[in-house]
Amino acid sequence: MSFVLIPQYFGSLVFNRGNSRYYPFDHTTTDLLLQSVQMPFEAVLASVDESEQEAAFHFFNHFYEMGMFTPDRYFAGEVLDVQPADDHLTGPLAVHLEVIAACNLTCTHCFAGELPRREDCLTLREIDGLFADMMGMGSFRLGLTGGEPLMRKDLFDIIDMALGHGLHPCLTTNALLITDDIAREFGKRDMVWLNVSLEGATAATNDRVRGKGTFDRVIEKLKILAEHTRFTLAFTIMSTNVDEVVQCAELARDVGAATAVFRPLYPVGTARQFLDELMPTFEQYNTALNLLAELELDMNTIDPFSPHIREDTRGITHTNHGCGAGNSVCSVSVSGDVNPCSFLGADFVADNIRQRPLSEIWQHSQRFQHIRTLPGGTVDSFSGGCRARSLILNGDANAPDPWLEAKQHLQERQPNVTFYDPLMVLDVNSTG
Q1: Are 30 and 12 in contact, with CB atoms under 8 Å apart?
Q2: Are strands 168-173 and 193-198 parallel, antiparallel or unpaired?
Q3: pLDDT at position 320, please?
Q4: CA distance linking residue 227 with residue 180, whole number of Å
């Protein structure tokens, strides 16, 4: 079925298997959707109070156009049999799984820190249990990270297990291990994103961060990928490349990428040693996003660690002052440690999936409960943005995110400036 309705404390989320997106609904609209499982929406409308029928009709009509209903007007999906939590999501919207703690590069900005780390890696059986647990709580988005994931020999077994459980995997690679056979294997599988990382539009800029010769080698590997599968070119915006983001988008188009992804540098992992060299200011970052927006390409801006206050038009899935960490995302390390966010570090590990299922950790762990109930909401505490940025740059995960203050100062100086949330995703082929 194309859609999955996941009960939530505020109503429900509906996951669209076609585009890997979640749509939030309140209790009123959730009731309409639940009724349309059993009867066509014309019959549902007949039972709606007359004063609310027009709004209900427009609701049904809008989502019928989106394909959420069958031709005979029933809900085109299934309802997940799960008990919603009282005050947070039933399960994370995305889980980031570290499949290996080793890499064939030593990038100066790597969020994973010093590699390799010698840990007892999760087995395929343990990973399969994790994926089944994720499916059971409606956590369909899966990010496969490292290190370099392609260094794990059973990577495609992991991807196949994820797909078999109905999950929607994304993977980030430096592409240096890509071969014709590997590219063909990716082409056989329906990945949400296959991200290839570069950190500049030129060898000089990229290799300063990722190592000498990597730019030219990756460009060659992209030619192989382009023959067999869809891929994305992913850039981390730093002070070293902030002036060439337009050229980065053009490069993505020229090498055949479907999209170009731009995200900010987070001051974690190895990057902490090089912040003076790599960390952009908020103004630099926002200027770069405005330059990208001016390209008039199709654009999406999605990031649970936004440095900005949520817009009124955005669906709200948590009501505390937190970021995505522990509210909409979490991470699982190569050895099974669960963290509200992979950027927060070992001090924030909540538990291990070898001791408790992820669903229990998400629901009941004191670490998760604590991060959701940190006070926030004042000028002296966290009120949105990125907790990892607050932790590293302001000394406490519940301190204000310094980029919010920088945003306010920039707005005072330039009241007409436009602000965008990272991550920015550009469809570099949208203009034909």
Answers
A1: yes
A2: parallel
A3: 83
A4: 9
Place of tokens 């299934």: 78
Q: Per residue in 155-209, pLDDT tens?
A: 999 999 999 999 999 999 999 999 999 999 999 999 999 999 999 999 999 999 9
Angle between helices 180-187 and 214-228 (to 10 degrees): 50
Q: What is the pLDDT of residues 100-146, one digit of tens each?
A: 999 999 999 999 988 899 999 999 999 999 999 999 999 999 999 99
pLDDT less than 70: residues of the chain: 1, 296-316, 421-424, 428-432
Under 8 Å between Cβ of 168 and 210: no
Could you give the CA distance from residue 367 to residue 227 in angstroms, rounded to a whole number? 45
Q: Give the separation between CA 333 and CA 344, rounded to whole angstroms.
A: 12
pTM for this structure? Answer: 0.92
Dist. CA 204–CA 213, nearest whole Å: 9
Q: How far is CA 200 from CA 6, 113, 146, 251, 421, in A?
A: 40, 21, 21, 9, 21
pLDDT at 306: 44
| Two structure tokens written together for 300 | 């999406």
Distance CA 68, CA 29 (A): 13
